[in-house]
Amino acid sequence: MHTVGELLREWRHRRRISQLDLAIAADVSARHVSLVETGRSNPSADMVLRLADHLDVPLRDRNRLLLAAGFAPRYTERPLDGDALSAARDAVGRVLRAHEPYPALVFDRRWNILMTNRAVDPFFALVDPDLLRPPVNLVRLGLDPRGLARLVVNTADVRAVFRSRIARQLAAAPDPELTALYDEFLAPAADEPSPSIESDVVISMIVCFDGRELRLFSTITTFGTPMDITLDEISIESYYPADAESAAYWSSQQEPRP
Known about the structure:
- Residues 8-62 form the HTH cro/C1-type domain.
- By secondary structure, the chain is an alpha+beta fold.
- The chain has two domains: 4-68, lambda repressor-like DNA-binding domains (434 Repressor (Amino-terminal Domain)); 83-253, PAS domain (Beta-Lactamase, 2-Layer Sandwich).
- It has twelve helices and five strands.
- The chain has helices at 4-15, 19-26, 30-37, 45-54, 59-68, 86-99, 121-124, 138-143, 155-172, 176-185, 229-233, 244-253, and strands spanning 104-107, 113-116, 205-209, 212-221, 235-241.
- A five-stranded antiparallel sheet has the order 2-1-5-4-3.
- A hairpin with a 2-residue loop joins strand 3 (205-209) and strand 4.
- Helix 9 packs antiparallel against helix 10 (176-185).
- The radius of gyration is 22 Å and the shape is elongated.
- The N and C termini lie far apart (60 Å).
């Protein structure tokens, strides 16, 4: 079992921050950071959290740091569909509904889909039912031939986007299950062609759907200053039409307001 000092040193190395830079940011002496990392000083819970904050350590791993230092975990992990997170869940639901007629969905740190809006349903209807058994994984859904991959024209571009995002995610906070997902779907093959990016502004996903090609780009929304692990780890991905023809199609799908 790693000590709190060893874990903090790992996170500091992962962030490529020197002891001096961390000490300046956390308003402590570089000697104190060194003593904590080598186990010659036992940090308080507040000091552990202060250093973790400046190292941008995820809440789940801050709990691990606290446990390693001999303290109780500070952050809870409650299900998104539970009573405790009802206000947050309702807020997410409003965001999803407000984005219609365009698709939007919510996924966790391992890219498992937690919520969607109604605009996603027509796409899911074309997916092999085996892929829709919980947990439904967005990466697997997007790249498996039984899923949405057969609808995507520029699969190489989409795979490259997934690869870049998950590689950055793993570099920031390693995770065995996410690593396995990366190895299964995203590890580059030796003969894999480079993606043909058409624009240096935004990468569109081109989907053959309903007899036409739809071009979409996406944005990511996260919770600000969450204190719950679940909220710290979820993201809302909202898709928008990338050209006038796609926008016209989505507008035609919009249900009239009562």
